[in-house]
Each structure stands twice: as structure tokens, then as C-alpha cells.
TrEMBL record:
Cofactor: pyridoxal 5'-phosphate
Protein name as annotated: THNS1 protein
Domain (Threonine synthase N-terminal): residue spans on this chain: 240-311
InterPro entries tied to this protein: P-loop_NTPase (IPR027417), Ser/Thr_deHydtase_PyrdxlP-BS (IPR000634), Shikimate/glucono_kinase (IPR031322), Shikimate_kinase/TSH1 (IPR000623), Thr_synth_N (IPR029144), Thr_synth_N_sf (IPR037158), Thr_synthase-like (IPR004450), TrpB-like_PALP_sf (IPR036052)
Any Pfam family matching the protein: Thr_synth_N
Membership in a protein family: Belongs to the threonine synthase family.
GO cellular component entries: cytoplasm
Biological pathway: Amino-acid biosynthesis
UniProt superkingdom: Eukaryota
């Protein structure tokens, strides 16, 4: 027997967690097949659970089920042969011809409702998932494994055999249409998914099924640690055993480090990636996130709801993140089709729903965020889309540099304020805002006071939160798959990516996609005149001494302290948290650190870097528009300039277009030499939209600015005690 356990993460004690870790340590010495057989044989039949194989016709459920049953030495049941035909005393095809499609589904469902088994491997029919009552009945008896086979592969398999037992077959209805229609039901019922691309052998699929069920049962393996945890502390310290739900809720590790998966990210095989080439963006997102989030934290069906809420209707382009050819071997990954017109929407349309699902119901949460421009409006919009009940227990406070964002960005942040979301301008720069939030999180006296006095906990929505990074991996992977689908590259051929980078989150997501199996050769880090990252990548020296932040046309990368760089250093340092802690203590106390030679060599295998001046940024916008009619925003222009200088043109380069040009209207108007720049943000957009040769401005952005009339926002001095006072006031006003 295997044990299905829905783990209430927040109720696990440190004592029980330590016990689980010890059990895990012991279990590593047990052979997998022996462990499974003991589970099936050492319990009474009453408690036994089933492995239930689900998938389309031609997925190989029957064959795979027999192999799995042999490996586990347990009964194997094929619903077609052992349940339906036995019940009806006729073949399935005869029954289908006799009663027709709709009645067949009803008769099939009734037969399954009367069926019971335990400790078995059960192969469902392709149409069983279309009967809700029957599937609810089956799901109670075990774990449902979805054999996800690409439709072209299924069509190829069925082409060579006579198919007369598929529900829905009729003149004028293609088999492809039937398979596409059924996908929604497989998505609804599966607990775990096994990707079965290409000509994969049934024996291999069976092993993948066992591996997937093993993963499902061993949620203790998928824990998170701090980038600053010691080598000894990583193995068994109770505090190091954090689950996905914990890190989403807590945001920042107690020692000031960032959470990372203890066992690293999952790696998909080439065949598994290739099975996603024909998939939609939402389908790719589902597969990738199922691999990265354990179902004990978020079940697959709930994850599908969250992904649907994030990307289903909120993006102006149906492709979500389309890839467009720019010129030569350069391609643009358009990441600005979300509601607030920047790449931050990809994470922040999803993260609030993940957060609301993971947090305990017994506590209120105030989400703090620091922004250099785009994050603020994306956070405010994302959390404002939660259900009313969630908005009553989750509020957001957004800190931004009062004079360090574009006028349109500021108007957005003011306009997106809602009953549970507020913006506060700080008389300083982004680095102060981000550092202040980190200090607040690590101030246990203050956070403890908020919890005891107001029943409110703090959480983070910056990319220091792991749930912010995961959705960004998807679009880097999807962009490569789109190039393969378009015939630009065969799968396996490398590409470079060029990303305008300030806080290192977006480029880190690309590096994570590479780790997961996407053939990215080099990640090109593009800086503006705040070139601390470029200098570091070139020299290994991270030096903030004497540096002052320079306001530029690309404010989202006007950053000197790059938070997510810490995660990457932890990765290339072989998870040496002690070294990472030492480096960041030195940065905090002395304003600089230097990588040792071997780590710098590792870093430079992944990364190259360059920076772009303000003049070159504007010139690139003008040049690209003159030659192609396309308008780059200022951040994408920075990346374009750096890509032109650094790419060797031996492979395609995907440039991340991180924002819509209309967010930075003054710079665009200046670059295109259109007219005198007006100060009112709405006037700037109207001027852009009235110039007919230009592509249209972002409609969502225009609508937001039209609504932004007399709305106001709070302004605060760069003082920690004042920020903390504002937080307390907000909590009193919203939750009390």
C-alpha cells in the first residue's frame, strides 16, 4: 500500500519535522521496489490504495499498467476488459454502437461507480474522466496518474489500428478534435502527470510512473534552505526544513538569506521538453509548475485554477508571451501584454493566488514590496484581483522611490490603489526601499509585536519570494519552444538570451530554465549606466564604495544591490551557505566583496555582460523604429545595444522585451524626435497614440491613467521608524 497524505504544512511541529527528516535519511537505504511491495503487503486490504492510470486512447495505459503491476507484484485491472465488458457481456465497441455516445458515458460511469478495488493498478478508459461522479469515486480509492502523450503521437499510434470504440466519433468530427476536447477532463482529475513524448517505450513510462508516485509520497524530499545556512545546518536542522508553502508565506529566511530548493530544480528530459512544443503557454506553465511545486503544497487541480486565473483573460495577447523576429538572428520575447504592461505581470498575476492558497486562515497578512518602477503596479493589480474574502485578510503596501520612477509608472501605482492595496513614496532610492524591507523582516521584535498586537504577519512580494521567480522560468522556456515550433532552431540547438538586468531576478529565471534542460548557451546581462552587475560579471568584484545611483531612462534597472544574485552565487558555490553569508556580510559592512577565481570562472561560463549609455539607448530606439517600424521601450533598448555588442551571431539571441514602450513616453518622444514633451502622463500617452505611424499604446495603461484623477498617495522620509509607523497605521485601518 502507498499512503496518500495531504499535509497541513502549518501544523507540522519542529519535533515532527525532525522525525520526518530522520525517517527520510533511513529510507534512502531501502530499494524502491522493495519499499513499494512492503507498502502493498504489510497493510490490510481495507486500507489499500490504488494506482489509477488515466489518459487518452492510445496512451498505453493497459500496457504500462501491466508492467507497473508486475514490478509491484500487485493485481492489475483494465476497466475496458475487466469491468465494462464483464458487466455488459459484450464488447465496448458493440455497447457504444448499441446505445450511442451520451448513453454510453452514463452506462460506463454507472459501472465504475459499482466497482471497487484496493491495492491494485487500474487502467481507466479514455472516456472515464468525462463522468464526474465516477471519477470522484475512483479518486477516493487512490492516486490518479495522467499519462500525458502529445496529440500528434496519439494520432500516429491510432492511425495504424482500427479505432471503433472512441466516444465522440462521428462523421465530420476529427479524432484530433476529440482528443483536444478531452484534455480539460484529464487536467481536472489527475494527481500527478507523466510526460510521455515521442516513441518512449512502455517500460520507460512504467518507471516514470513509479518515480512520479514516489515523489508524490515523499514530500519531505522537497524542502527549502536559506542561501546563508551553514553546511552542517543544511542536513538536519529543523529550521532548514521549509516547504514551498512555508517559503511563500515567509518570503525571506530568518537569517537574512533567500530560500532555494534544497535538492535543486527538477530537470526535464529532451523528450519531455519536446512533448511541449505544440502546447499552449498555459499548458507549458502547468507542466513546469507541477514539477516545481509538490502536490502536497498545491494539488494539480488547484494549480490549474490558479494558472487559469492568472493567464486566462488578463493578457491582451492570446499567446501570452509571443516571440517576434526583430532583425537578423535577434528575436524579441514580448513580456508586456499583461494588465500593467511589464514582465512583472507574469509572476504577479499568479503569485497572489498562490499566496492566498498557502497562508493559514487564522492570520491576517500584510504584503510588503519595494519597487524600482514596474513591480509596484503589478503587485497592486495582482492582489486586487483576489476574491473578496481573501482581500479582507491580505493587504499590500508598496514602497517606491518618490522621485525615482517615471511619471507614468507613478501614475500607475497611484491609480492601482484599492481597498487592500496602498502605495507609499519614499524620499530615497530603490536600494533604500529594498534594504528597509529586508531589515523589517529580520527585526523579530517588530514582527512579533505585529503578530501579538494585531494578529498580522508580514510577507514579501519582491523577487526575494520564491513564488515570484518560478513563473518567470516559464516564459524563458516557452520562448525557446516557440523558436523550435517556428522552425528557427531544431530542439537541442542553443540560443543566447539578453536581459536588461538590475535585481538579477529575470536573468536568474533564465539560468534556472537552463538548469531544467532548456539549451541556453549564454545569458547576456544588460546594464544601464548603473553598471555594478556588468562590472561584477567581468571582474568578480562587487563594489558599491563611492557609487551613487544614477537616474536613467530605464528606471526598473536603476539598482545597485541585486538581491537575486545571492541565489546564483549559492548555486555556483555548491550551496556553500557559509561562503555566501561571509560575502554578503562583507558587502553590508564594507561595501564590497570579491569572488575567488574558480567561482568567477564558473560564473563566466554562464554569463557575459555589458552596459549602455543614455545616448545609445535613445539612439537604438530611433534606429530600430526607422528600420523596422517597431518601438522598443527603454529597457529593451538597453538590451538591444548590449546584444549588438556581445553576441557572436553563431546562434539566435532572444532579447527580453520587459515593458511596453508607452510606459516611458517622455523618453520615447525624445528618441523619436516627435514633439515637445508634456509633463502630464495622460497627455504624453495621447500624444503617442495620436501619432498614427506608431504602433498603438498599451490599452490597459491608457485606461488606468484615464481613471487616475485626484487620487493621492502617502509620501514618507527615508527613515526606518517612519516606515514602520506607516505599516502599523495601515494594519490598524484595514484589519482592526
Amino acid at each position: 500500500m502507498f499512503h496518500i497524505r495531504y499535509r497541513p504544512l502549518r501544523l507540522i511541529t519542529r519535533k515532527s519535522l525532525s522525525s520526518m527528516c530522520l525517517k527520510l535519511m533511513f529510507s534512502r537505504h531501502v530499494a524502491f521496489s522493495q519499499m513499494w511491495k512492503s507498502w502493498f503487503s504489510s497493510h490490510s486490504p481495507v486500507g489499500n490504495k490504488n494506482i489509477i492510470l488515466m489518459g487518452p486512447p492510445g496512451a498505453g495505459k493497459t500496457t504500462v499498467g501491466r508492467i507497473v503491476g508486475q514490478k509491484l507484484d500487485c493485481p492489475v485491472i483494465d476497466v475496458d476488459d475487466d469491468v465494462l465488458e464483464t458487466t455488459w457481456n459484450m464488447s465496448v465497441s458493440e455497447k457504444l454502437q448499441d446505445v450511442g455516445n451520451e448513453q454510453f458515458l452514463e452506462e460506463e460511469g454507472k459501472a465504475l461507480l459499482k466497482f471497487s478495488a484496493s491495492g491494485s493498478v487500474i487502467s481507466l478508459t479514455g472516456s472515464n474522466p468525462m463522468h464526474s461522479a465516477a471519477m470522484r469515486h475512483m479518486k477516493k480509492t487512490g492516486i490518479v496518474v495522467y499519462l500525458d502523450v502529445p496529440i500528434p503521437v496519439i494520432l500516429s499510434r491510432l492511425k495504424s489500428v482500427k479505432v471503433d470504440r472512441i466516444v465522440g466519433q462521428s462523421p465530420g468530427v476529427s479524432l484530433k478534435d476529440i482528443l483536444l476536447f478531452r484534455k480539460q477532463f484529464y487536467k481536472r482529475w489527475h494527481d500527478i502527470r507523466v510526460l510521455c513524448g515521442g516513441d518512449i517505450a512502455a517500460e520507460v513510462v512504467a518507471e516514470k510512473v513509479l518515480d512520479a508516485v514516489k515523489r508524490y509520497q515523499n514530500s519531505e524530499l522537497e524542502t527549502f534552505i536559506s542561501t546563508r545556512s551553514s553546511v552542517a545546518g543544511r542536513s538536519m536542522e529543523t529550521d532548514s526544513c521549509k516547504y514551498f508553502s512555508d517559503v511563500v508565506t515567509e518570503g525571506l529566511a530568518p537569517d537574512g538569506g533567500l530560500f532555494v530548493p534544497k535538492r535543486g530544480l527538477p530537470k526535464l528530459t529532451a523528450g519531455e521538453w519536446q512533448s511541449l512544443i505544440e502546447s499552449t503557454y498555459i499548458e507549458r506553465a502547468q507542466v513546469i509548475l507541477e514539477r516545481c511545486i509538490h502536490p502536497a503544497d498545491i494539488p494539480a487541480s488547484k494549480l490549474a485554477e490558479i494558472i487559469g486565473a492568472a493567464y486566462g483573460e488578463n493578457f491582451a495577447c492570446s499567446k501570452i508571451a509571443p516571440v517576434r523576429h526583430l532583425a537578423g538572428n535577434q528575436f524579441l520575447l514580448e513580456l508586456f501584454h499583461g494588465p500593467t504592461a511589464s514582465f512583472k505581470d507574469f509572476a504577479l498575476q499568479m503569485m497572489p493566488h498562490i499566496f492566498a492558497y498557502c497562508i493559514p486562515r487564522s492570520c491576517n497578512y500584510l504584503v510588503l514590496v519595494a519597487t524600482s518602477g514596474d513591480t509596484g503596479s503589478a503587485v497592486l493589480d495582482g492582489f486586487s484581483r483576489l476574491h473578496d474574502a481573501d482581500k479582507q485578510r491580505i493587504a499590500v503596501m508598496n514602497f517606491f522611490p518618490e522621485d525615482g520612477v517615471s511619471p507614468i509608472q507613478k501614475s500607475q501605482m497611484i491609480g492601482y490603489q484599492k481597498e487592500n492595496a496602498w502605495s507609499v513614496g519614499v524620499k530615497s532610492d530603490f536600494d533604500f526601499c529594498q534594504t528597509a524591507i529586508k531589515q523589517i523582516f529580520t527585526n523579530s521584535d517588530y514582527t512579533g509585536f505585529l503578530t501579538v498586537e494585531y494578529g498580522t504577519a508580514l510577507a514579501a512580494a519582491n523577487s526575494i519570494n520564491w513564488a515570484r521567480l518560478l513563473p518567470q522560468i516559464i516564459y524563458h522556456a516557452s520562448a525557446y519552444l516557440d523558436l523550435v515550433h517556428q522552425g528557427i532552431v531544431p530542439f537541442g540547438s542553443p540560443v543566447d538570451v539578453c536581459i536588461p538586468t538590475g535585481n538579477f531576478g529575470n536573468i536568474l529565471a533564465a539560468l534556472y530554465a537552463k538548469i531544467m534542460g532548456i539549451p541556453i548557451r549564454k545569458c547576456i546581462c544588460a546594464s544601464n549606466e548603473n553598471s555594478v552587475l556588468t562590472d561584477f560579471i567581468r571582474t568578480g568584484v562587487y563594489d558599491l564604495r563611492g557609487r551613487k545611483l544614477i537616474p536613467t531612462f530605464s528606471p526598473a534597472v536603476d539598482i545597485l544591490k541585486s538581491s537575486n544574485l545571492e541565489r546564483y552565487l549559492h548555486l555556483i558555490a555548491n550551496e556553500d551557505g557559509q561562503l555566501v553569508r561571509q560575502l554578503y556580510n562583507q558587502l553590508e559592512n564594507q561595501g564590497h566583496f570579491q569572488l575567488q577565481k574558480d567561482l568567477l570562472e564558473k560564473l563566466q561560463q554562464d554569463l557575459v555582460a555589458g552596459w549602455c549609455s543614455e545616448g545609445d539607448c535613445l539612439a537604438a530606439i530611433h534606429s530600430v523604429y526607422s528600420t523596422t517600424g517597431y518601438i522598443l521601450d527603454t529597457h529593451t533598448a538597453v538590451a538591444k545595444v548590449v546584444a549588438d555588442r556581445l553576441q557572436d551571431r553563431t546562434c539566435p539571441v532572444i532579447i527580453s522585451s520587459t515593458a511596453h514602450y508607452s510606459k516611458f513616453a517622455p523618453a520615447i518622444l525624445r528618441a523619436l524626435r516627435i514633439a515637445e514633451i508634456k509633463q502630464n502622463p495622460l497627455s504624453q500617452l495621447h500624444l503617442l497614440s495620436s501619432y498614427s505611424p506608431l504602433p498603438p499604446v498599451h490599452c490597459g495603461l491608457l485606461e488606468t491613467l484615464k481613471k487616475t484623477g485626484s487620487e493621492d498617495h502617502q509620501v514618507c522620509a527615508a527613515d526606518m521608524s517612519m516606515l514602520m509607523s506607516r505599516i502599523e497605521t495601515l494594519i490598524q485601518n484595514h484589519f482592526m
